[in-house]
Amino acid sequence: MQFSSRKLLTIGHSYIVPLNRRLANEMARISGSDWDITIVSPLALKGDLRPLQLRQDQDDRCVLEGVSMRWQQSTHVMMYHDRLREILQQKWDLVHCWQEPYVVSGGQVARWTQPKTPLVYFTCQNNPKSYPPPFNWIETYSMQRAAAWIYAGQTVANTLKQRRHYDLPTRHIPHGVDVELFAPDLAARQKVRQQLEWDTGDVPVIGFLGRFVPEKGLELMMRSLDQISQPWRALFVGTGGMEADLRSWGARYGDRVRVCTTVRHDQVPHYLNAMDLLCAPSQTTKSWREQFGRMLIEAFATGIPVIGSDSGEIPYVIGDAGIVVKEKDQTAWVQAISMLLNDPDQRNVFSKKGLDRAHSTYSWSVVARQHLEFFDSILERSNSLMSLY
Questions:
Q1: Which domains does the chain have, with CATH numbers?
Q2: pLDDT, tens digit, for every residue of 303-352?
Q3: 67, 80, 110 from 85: Cα distances, Å
């Protein structure tokens, strides 16, 4: 007897970036003919650095559907046009929504998914919040419609399992990293350092990757570097409102500090390779704590030792593969950075541990397989429930 492929629809804003489609493409590769996978992505987004346009990539293994968006000023209110409704009216065995269930677009997916089709959300919300209307109504509606949900980390589970309507089948599956793209690369290291007009000497480079905003701990990092007596250079890669503050501070150190705001996503591995250690000094606020820390697993895969604060999910992501420091303990930050600057052998130890953790826990092949196994279990459960009627 010949079986037809099951049809999976996966929807997400982030799919507009080809690298972020690696999850769906890896699921397609692993599943072979078992799953027929279609990706829904925005046709265009404003983007943090520059406008983004959906384009087919040579590595895409899935059908790619573009849908226009409106109200892009905020991810909370951003909406899909009716083309998504048309797509969701087709026959799907399972719909996977890589968006929060309380945002407007997440509610659209719940409303337009056919009643008998299992709907699975992927959520990163790890901060206890009381949403105002209409977002609390959207969350309730979405989770009542959902068949299951996936959480990115332990702090997400600790937060959401206490909320109403989340008593559904669930699974912990982390974000993934492309361990082929993010990998140790001596040539890239040398090329970037030459572009930055740094020699290839022994002065270690302390790196930061992410948004230039207060909650990412840039003020703490600058104050900590001010107190470090050993030779160092600092490389900041990202963009955000604190750019002027960073440049003003960096001007005091001349060519020892570089602030790079035009690095494309596909160039990030090269800039990580130019670093000797990565700092992630995230600072918890009343409304935010680090949800995951993708820069950590990208550094792991590149063989770069990491120091992270104990904000949100960071300690769980790092495990024993790096150093975790109390987020507001500046003395401890100075000590941790100084220790790694002084000890190349210890940097090598953490480099190897990070590489092992990236490949065993966070590689897309591992993460994609976990998704498929969970989807299989949801379909088995759904079929069992239907057989009772």
A1: 6-176+363-387 (3.40.50.2000), 186-361 (3.40.50.2000)
A2: 999 999 999 999 999 999 999 999 999 999 999 999 999 999 999 999 99
A3: 10, 9, 10
